[in-house]
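Please fill in the sequence for the structure shown.

STRUCTURE ENCODING:
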């Protein structure tokens, strides 16, 4: 559910204070824990360190990001991969076929010489 237009966008006042009067080119990373803060046009070009629960992830704000929240660009969960034993077998078969293809290509170039 979106925020009421009557209230306006939520932008953390501490973030606005940190970027006030600064230029995006020579400002170091601005660390923030305000994941719910919306990105305003004033923030374009700045580098933010958005906290994901463990570390600060660097987010360089571009024009396409305006209107989105800072937390959208700092994932909190780490995706490893799907599958278990069957997935490992498929990956091993794929790696074996790649090695065989590379070996045959190497032999073909050696035969030409």
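FILLED IN BY: designer on duty
SEQUENCE:
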């Amino acid at each position: 559910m979106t925020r009421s237009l009557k209230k306006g966008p939520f932008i953390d006042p501490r973030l606005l204070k940190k970027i006030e009067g600064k230029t995006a080119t020579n400002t170091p990373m601005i660390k923030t824990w305000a994941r719910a803060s919306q990105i305003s046009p004033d923030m374009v070009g700045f580098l933010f360190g958005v906290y994901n629960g463990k570390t600060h992830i660097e987010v360089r704000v571009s024009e396409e990001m305006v209107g989105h929240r800072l937390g959208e660009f700092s994932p909190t969960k780490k995706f490893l991969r799907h599958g278990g034993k069957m997935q490992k077998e498929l990956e091993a078969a794929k790696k074996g076929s790649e090695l065989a293809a590379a070996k045959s290509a190497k032999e073909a170039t050696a035969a030409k010489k």
